Amino acid sequence: MSELIRTDASELGQLIASGQASSVEVTRAHFERIAQVDDDVHAFLALTEDAALAQAARVDERIAAGEKLGPLAGVPIAVKDLLCYTQAPTTASSRILEGWVPPYNSTVVNRLIDAGLVILGKTNLDEFAMGSSTETSAYGPTHNPWDLSRIPGGSGGGSAAALAAFMAPLAIGTDTGGSIRQPAAVTGTVGVKPTYGGVSRYGIIAMASSLDQCGPDARNVLDAALLHEVIAGYDPRDSTSINVPVPGVVEAARRADVKGLRIGVVKELGGEGYAPGVEKRVGEAIDALVAAGAELVEVSCPHFEQALAAYYLIMPAEVSSNLARYDGMRYGLRAGDDGTNSVENVMRLTRGKGFGTEAKRRIILGTYALSAGYYDAFYGSAQKMRTLIARDFAAAFEVCDVLVSPATPTTAFKIGEKVDDPLAMYKSDLCTIPANLAGIAAGSVPCGLADEDGLPVGFQVMAPALADDRIYLVAAALEHALEAKWGAPLWSRIPELSVSDKTSDKGDK
Predict the structure, then answer these.
(1) What residue spans define the domains of the chain?
(2) 194, 358, 359, 425 from 348: Cα distances, Å
(3) CATH class in words for 22-304+387-493
């Protein structure tokens, strides 16, 4: 395996800037790795090799000309297939958008390109980001590089798996109820959901507009912070974008000092239903932070116990509204248009053929929750509970600086194990959903391997809105403490994937 693909993104940026490695060389090494292992992992839906190598060459030319670029210039990155990018289809892993190439880039993609990052391709996800395992993708499941028989989390399992399999040093995810943090937890990577409105949603296919947020994925905390700094900031094209300075996330990741920081342990996020190995590793992580000088506070957030129920009314209601546009009339799939069918029948046939089971389930649930006679009882009540959850957070942050918990109740489960049990699948997001409902910042950082199965455990850190830097401060302090204990980063323990001689067929499309 080329050492370039096992090198941190920040270090790759330094090697490229100094001329010790070229961006083209680094980019080619990652495409070679993708060709070797992605037939087994299935992290990517489309590769953009020509555009990537052209971008890498431009970066190399600018460096050779003496231009000073950003710290991630020339570094490859994978992008979740919800973000519009003119060089590749944007499908949201759904048949209803199969082959659709956007006429414009999302703001996040433009910021990546402007910063000199090299987009390798688009990664797999649960259809329209609806799922916790990347099994609802219309193009097949992604596999966890730690154990190919297990899920890589969802909805952004493709981005997390690309990192864990060394196919990309950085990735972009989106998080509606845990879709960055839960895949990061089960793949032993780092994922952060910024404050709602902290990163532009313009050009990102919407699932639930009041909950969706784009954020960074990486193999370590500093790399995630550097990527966060690139993509964050005000965008007038997004009506929910916050016009405030980006928090000092990179400085916090480098400082990594928690002396005197008050860390709140959420009583409700643990106990029954949580794997013993997960709770043990999380407990050890808390001990490590206390040993580093943090102060421990136990807090109660009583309404968190209703977060799952509230989320699965609010989110489907917004899904029902957002996915109404996919009707076969303007773009994407059109079924049954033989000249004899009515518009209504074409819409019905298109949506019936184009959407998968989970998407249909959530559309129907959301439509019912919004229907006359049920709106107040279901959607209205869920919004009231959302307010109470936000108040729980506000009260907790009066006595502590951050809150911590497991990122997921269990480690990665087997592919197919929960696919026929939606409620069991939904419970994977018990720990992550409250932060989305309140719009605060939250992230997951690896804290070890569970005794039961030797699979990664994620440690969640939550901070007040616009205090994203606290996530990186705590996560980096924990990362340093645990790596000193282990003697190496957790990702160094990822099993070596078998390398086939097959050439990837996922080229430019």
Answers:
(1) 22-304+387-493
(2) 37, 17, 14, 28
(3) alpha beta
